[in-house]
């Protein structure tokens, strides 16, 4: 009797297991035939039954079936906000059960890469429609799928910035830096966002210090760091740091240009002029050096003109014309520098605008009009 009962129990067990395995197989067959609603119903049953809920095959095909609903012309309407989470959960569960080298585990990476593209496309669609919260949510999910890929994180930072959620944007830039995406723009954008949120000087300077280790020749980063040195009465430290950097790399034109900027701020105009000219000697296409030399000459002319403007009538009659002639010489001296700067960067709006002012000062109406038209193009 006992033997008969055991045999009967075993037969029942096989029948139940077979029924559940049949649900998985039916789901696979319906998926293959493109009947995704039936495939979904079958696989949803299989993942809740104790005989198949711990099978890698069950979870893998659950992910596949739900994933293939996304964007499907017939069954796409069955997908919702939770569908992507279900797909990701299913593939993660597959790996947990089967490992990376298992029969189904080794199929997951390709499917995840496909999922990453689907999620990123959704994020971009929200981004283009300026639906920032939804875009950021999708970018974050895409980053979970491919943690080492930088595209989603970078665009998440852009979306958070557009939303004016600067702290969140900063966190995305921190994430980029953490995963090795340490471009100059990443640091530059982070610094500007920190400034916009009125972060402490220490926090901004810490970012600048880290940035300059990665991009020691960045003029923007060096100049921003100088601002904070000067703001915190550390000009001597800044000067020492620059001079040491120049000793280590004397042929670095950017360092000489930044040194000129610092000397100019300390009102050492002769030293600044020499440093800018040294930068040009090393690099004949150094935009900052040309532009700043032009500014030095232009400002000298403006200072002289201002003195003339403050004279009383009698004094002006005696000395005013001579001062204006001196001023004109400085304006004329600034022109070659600004023109060369524009040659180096032909579309720089600041240089074009300055050339309009200089030619206006000099009474060169035709030239002023020419640059003015260029400015409005």
TrEMBL record:
UniProt cross-references to SMART domains, sorted A to Z: TPR
Keywords for this protein: Repeat, Signal, TPR repeat
Top-level taxon in the UniProt lineage: Bacteria
One Pfam family from the record: TPR_8
Segment forming the signal sequence: 1-19
TPR repeats: 253-286
Entry-linked InterPro entries: TPR-like_helical_dom_sf (IPR011990), TPR_rpt (IPR019734), Ycf3 (IPR050498)
Name listed for the protein in its UniProt record: Tetratricopeptide repeat protein
Annotated source species: Pontibacter aydingkolensis
């Amino acid at each position: 009797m006992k033997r008969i009962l055991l045999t009967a129990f075993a037969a029942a067990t096989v029948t139940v297991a077979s029924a559940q395995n049949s649900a998985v197989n039916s789901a696979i067959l319906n998926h293959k035939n493109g009947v995704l609603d039936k495939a979904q119903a079958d696989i949803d049953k299989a993942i809740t039954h104790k005989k198949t809920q711990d099978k890698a095959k069950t979870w893998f095909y659950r992910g596949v079936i739900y994933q293939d609903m996304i964007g499907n012309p017939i069954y796409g309407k069955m997908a919702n906000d939770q569908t992507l989470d279900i797909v990701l959960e299913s593939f993660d569960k597959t790996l947990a059960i089967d490992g990376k080298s298992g029969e189904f585990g080794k199929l997951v990476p390709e499917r995840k890469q496909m999922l990453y593209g689907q999620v990123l496309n959704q994020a971009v669609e929200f981004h283009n429609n300026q639906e920032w919260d939804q875009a950021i949510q999708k970018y974050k999910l895409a980053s979970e799928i491919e943690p080492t890929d930088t595209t989603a994180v970078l665009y998440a930072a852009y979306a958070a910035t557009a939303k004016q959620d600067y702290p969140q944007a900063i966190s995305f830039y921190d994430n980029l830096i953490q995963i090795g995406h340490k471009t100059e723009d990443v640091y530059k954008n982070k610094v500007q966002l920190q400034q916009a949120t009125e972060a402490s000087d220490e926090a901004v300077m810490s970012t600048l210090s880290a940035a300059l280790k990665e991009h020691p020749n960045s003029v923007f980063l060096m100049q921003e760091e100088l601002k904070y040195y000067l703001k915190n009465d550390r000009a001597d430290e800044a000067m020492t740091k620059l001079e040491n950097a120049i000793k280590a790399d004397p042929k670095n034109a950017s360092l000489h240009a930044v040194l000129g900027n610092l000397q100019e701020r300390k009102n050492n105009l002769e030293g600044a002029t020499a440093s800018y000219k040294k930068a040009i000697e090393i690099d004949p296409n150094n935009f900052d050096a040309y532009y700043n030399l032009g500014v030095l000459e232009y400002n000298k002319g403006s200072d002289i003109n201002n003195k003339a403007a403050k004279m009383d009538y009698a004094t002006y009659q005696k000395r005013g014309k001579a001062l204006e002639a001196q001023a004109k010489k400085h304006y004329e001296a600034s022109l070659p520098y600004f023109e060369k700067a524009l040659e180096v960067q032909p579309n720089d709006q600041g240089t074009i605008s300055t050339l309009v002012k200089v030619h206006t000062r000099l009474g060169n109406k035709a030239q002023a009009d020419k640059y003015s038209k260029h400015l409005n193009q």
